[in-house]
Amino acid sequence: MIGNQGEDDPFHYTVSHFKEIARQNLFAENAGVAHDMDRCAVCNPGIAGRDPFSVYLEVIVESVLVRRPGLDEALVAEINGDRAMAGFDADLTVSRLLEGDRNAVDSWVSWVREALATGLGLLSIHSPTSLDFDLDEQESIGYGPLIASSIQHIIGQQRRLATALRK
Ligand SMILES: [Zn+2]
């Protein structure tokens, strides 16, 4: 008997498939990467036995962490780039972000949120049957807490790795 928690189950298969795509930096071209479509929970929303949005979000959270596991200079440069575009001072540093300066952390949260939105957009073009989720829309129908905790999870992991590397 095949259990439902093992590597064969659609949820785990899907998360590992997309983590590998992220590792190879092929997320933008994910639609063209060969995979087992019968077991893919992005191609077949609902196949994982969980609510499709939470599955899509988990896929993106894990993939973002593959690309950006820790808060480093490269990530800070991206956050500063976003700030400059929004007309703020692009003067953040790893230290200021780790110290938890409120204004700085708000920009970090915005970066993660944008990464999630971009990822969901790329999953929407994964296959003809994949769904198109919009973060604002999902928030308005009650997924705000899940989205907020996903953002905090990513920030927590990125902070942990950056802090560990400084020791
Ligand atoms: Zn698929």
Tell me what you see in this structure.
By secondary structure, this protein is an all-alpha fold. The protein is 62% helix and 0% strand. The chain is built from 6 helices and no strands. It has helices at residues 10-23, 52-67, 73-85, 94-99, 102-124, 135-166. The longest helix is centred in the last third of the chain and has 32 residues, at 135-166. The radius of gyration is 17 Å and the shape is globular. Residues 35, 37, 40, 42-43, 126-127 line the site of zinc ion (ZN). Zinc ion is lined by residues 35, 37, 40, 42-43, 126-127.
What structural keywords apply?
single chain, 167 residues, mainly alpha, globular, binds zinc ion
Q: Which regions are unreliable across 5 or more consecutive residues at pLDDT < 50?
A: none
Number of domains: 1
Please report the distance between the alpha carbons of the first and last residues.
46 Å
Largest sheet data: none
Shape: globular
SS-derived structural category = mainly alpha
List the SSEs and their pairings.
Layout: H1 10-23, H2 52-67, H3 73-85, H4 94-99, H5 102-124, H6 135-166
Helix pairs in contact: 1-2, 2-5, 2-6, 3-5, 5-6
Bound molecules: zinc ion.
Zinc ion is lined by residues 35, 37, 40, 42-43, 126-127.
